[in-house]
Amino acid sequence: MDNQAEILKLRQHLEQLIIGQKNLLDRLLISLLTGGHILLEGPPGLAKTTAVNTLASGVHASFQRIQFTPDLMPGDLTGIDIFDPESHQFKFVPGPVFHEILLADEINRAPPKVQSALLEAMAEHQVTVGGVTRKLPDLFVVMATQNPLEQSGTYPLPEAQLDRFLLHIRLDYPGPEEELEILKLDRRLHYGEDKPQLSSPLTPQTILAARHEVSSIYVDEMLEKYIVQIVTATRHLADWHKDWENFLVAGASPRASIAMLRAASAMAYLNGRDHVIPDDILAIAEDVLRHRLVLDYSALAANVSADIIIQHLLDQIPIP
Asked: Is the distance from CB of 46 to CB of 87 less than 8 angstroms?
């Protein structure tokens, strides 16, 4: 695992600049190491954009942030064909989706046509404009945000698109001690001290090589069965809680099992191990599953959230 030490150095550098969001930083690295897209949900001011931008600079990847709005058009994302009067031909002008790391800010504010174009990029690593299909960079990942506080003018993401996200991360405010550290860091950065610098040898090519290393992480068959049992339990909820029989319209798809295995392998990699342990699975299970459970209105009426259901299953299913 030649690249593991440098990736751990990158995590330490991120922790110097992004205080109180260790969970977020680990998930961002998991996204890079698996090629999976992530959805970040939290109120403004929690350094989501700063974290993604700093991560991109740490691996020398091309980065683009795009603000999703109700008047956004698919071409604003994918690019468009523009007529060149000199050559008398149409010339394709690439959109922001052709960067290696795309930050889709407030993704749920864009209309369905834009989501459809983004779904093709997320699922197929390609976009089609004017009947021509163009490949996206090998490293391409979408790191999207949505604000849970303001729902006016938003469009709920379709289930098919939600299922394409490897992880759905919910962020909360830092504790008082961490917020004090944030104040001190901000003062240092704005009153004379230089920003901590990282001389990182990481490149998109080394990240792609690290993905192969993550794929070689050993996973015991008992843990694979454990993952499958967790995911299939969401489709047979009554077997684990008789009062919740009708609480889910749909459970998690087999894509959730794949996502859980990949994320757990990346978690083991970040923890310096060459094998997955049950704690790796437990650490990422909620992030893998919460956006894949379609809750019925009866669950909402009973104040039972996806997180409550997932935690109940994790408590009930025996750990190997």
From this structure: no
In DSSP terms, 295 is beta-bridged to: 248
Q: Could you tell me the two tokens for 36?
A: 């999976």
Domain ranges of the chain: 4-172, 218-316
What's the predicted TM-score (pTM) here? 0.90
Three-state secondary structure of 154-180: CCCCCHHHHCCEEEEEECCCCCHHHHH
Closest CA to 291 of 39, 22, 115: 39
pLDDT of residue 38: 95
Q: Are 311 and 286 in contact (CB under 8 A)?
A: yes
For 243, which DSSP code? G
Q: Give the pLDDT mean for 214-218.
A: 94
**Tens digits of residue pLDDT in 158-169:** 888 899 999 999
| 8 Å CB contact between 127 and 88 | no
Cα separation, 141 vs 101, in Å, equals 5
* pLDDT tens for each residue of 263-318: 999 999 999 899 999 999 999 999 999 999 999 899 889 999 999 999 999 999 99
Mapped onto helix, strand or coil, the DSSP state of residue 144 is strand
Q: What is 57-121 written as a DSSP string?
A: HHTT--EEEEE--TT--HHHHHEEEEEETTTTEEEEEE-GGGSSEEEEETGGGS-HHHHHHHHHH
Of 3.50.50.60, 1.20.1730.10, 3.40.50.1220, 1.10.8.80, the CATH number of 218-316 is 1.10.8.80
